[in-house]
Design goal:
Elements (H helix, E strand, L loop, with lengths): L12 E13 L2 E7 L15 E8 L2 E8 L9 E6 L6 H8 L5 E5 L16 E7 L3 H14 L4 E8 L8 H10 L4 E7 L15 H10 L3 E2 L2 E5 L6 E6 L1 H13 L7 E5 L18 E9 L2 E9 L4 H7 L17 E6 L2 E3 L7 H5 L2 E3 L3 E3 L3 E5 L4
Parallel strand pairs: 7-8, 7-12, 8-9, 12-13, 14-20
Antiparallel strand pairs: 1-2, 1-6, 2-5, 3-4, 3-6, 10-11, 14-15, 16-18, 16-20, 17-19
């Protein structure tokens, strides 16, 4: 998960020693870091969170986010990383850093987390594409360790059999927990002798999964396994998330129980906008970022705040533009906006005045926002 622009929130980095680096597939690898005793409190994390690595590449310093693959109980810090191309910074990260080297690592963060419920009977379904397996791997290990009554189903898509990162670790988990963990691998560019397992994870494939795999629930003869689903976790590319999140919603899963993490820039909404807003024209915008104040005007409110500021070439932070990552979080100090559905801000944060610029429709003639949160 790469940051396309730096966030305005200040991040605290610590030098950690790389203790293990392993190539998983042709285009993916893992890194494990030693966390010294005095920094253990700083690196406590929840399943599903990520860290930022800061490192040199091609004469520049990059900050990229990578999900933690370890579960908290394992008491180690491991990451899964995709090598995008020889021109990418992750290519240099793989080739330039060896065991024993030190890397600047931020403290864990992120909200792709679930509340643990060890005393409940739950059914959780995960969908992952490629390196999107990383936060789900952390989640599933953590749930299997802490929730003895929870059933897990993983549907994992890759191009070919050779492209599946962490397959050995996933299969080992299945072997240990055959009674409550099932995984199904899907391949978009390889024939494996089973048409059901060939092709991308999308709305059509989800309907097949519901009708062919998530059928009879042995614990409740009057319901199906899909009827019993409590939470859905999705991680991968934007188009996959959009297709599966909407398909899950249309098949009865409430939006509040569908959680997703994006691994690249995505400029589209995950869910379609269902509400129309009154037209507001000639809007004055004052905003502060990196301790600088700016004033501009918007022709109207037909395009959301972040996108309009980016069109005008202002240095506002963003990554997903879909209300998932929180990069464009800011405080509304004056005026009125309508905040569309987002996967990041809590109700309490919204009440305190925080908004996501990418999900904000301006409803007043003037607004004032502050991107400098710290």
């Amino acid at each position: 998960m790469e940051n396309l622009l730096s966030k305005t929130k200040q991040q605290k980095f610590h030098l950690l020693k790389l203790t293990k680096k392993q190539q998983l597939t042709k285009n993916t690898f893992s890194m494990e870091f030693d966390v010294p005793e005095n920094l253990l409190p700083n690196f406590r994390f929840e399943a599903g969170q990520y860290v930022t690595l800061q490192y040199p590449s091609k004469g520049e310093v990059f900050q990229n986010d990578f999900s933690i693959t370890a579960a908290p109980y394992e008491k180690k810090l491991t990451l899964g990383i995709k090598i995008n191309s020889p021109k990418s910074s992750t290519y240099d990260l793989f080739h330039d850093f060896q065991r024993g080297d030190s890397v600047e690592v931020s403290e864990p963060k992120g909200r792709f987390v679930l509340r643990s419920k060890p005393h409940e009977f739950r059914t959780i379904v995960g969908f992952a594409g490629g390196i999107g397996i990383t936060p789900l791997l952390s989640h599933f290990k953590n749930i299997l360790h802490n929730e003895p009554r929870t059933r897990l189903f993983l549907f994992y898509g890759n191009k070919t059999v050779a492209d599946v990162p962490f397959k050995q670790e996933i299969d080992a988990l299945v072997s240990l927990h055959q009674d409550r963990f099932a995984v199904h691998y899907f391949y978009s560019r390889e024939k494996v002798g089973n048409a059901f397992l060939e092709g991308r994870l999308d709305e059509h494939k989800l309907n097949l999964i519901i009708n062919q795999l998530m059928t009879i629930d042995e614990t409740d003869e009057e319901a199906t396994l899909w009827d019993a689903v409590d939470e859905v976790l999705i991680c991968g590319k934007g188009e996959m998330i959009k297709a599966l999140a909407n398909a899950c919603y249309h098949n009865g899963i409430p939006k509040k129980n569908i959680h997703f993490e994006l691994f690249e820039e995505f400029n589209d909404d995950i869910y379609p906008q269902e509400k129309e807003f009154p037209l507001v024209e000639n809007i004055e915008v004052d905003f502060k970022i990196f301790n600088k104040k700016y004033t501009t005007s918007l022709k109207d409110n037909k395009v959301r705040l972040l996108q309009q500021l980016l069109i005008q070439k202002f240095p506002v932070p963003y990554s997903c533009k879909s209300g998932i990552c929180g990069s464009c979080e800011c405080v509304l100090e004056e005026g009125e906006v309508e905040l569309l559905e987002n996967e990041y801000l809590t109700e309490k944060e919204e009440q305190s005045g925080k908004i996501l610029a990418c999900m904000s429709v301006v409803l007043s003639k003037k607004i004032k926002v502050n991107f400098d949160l710290d």
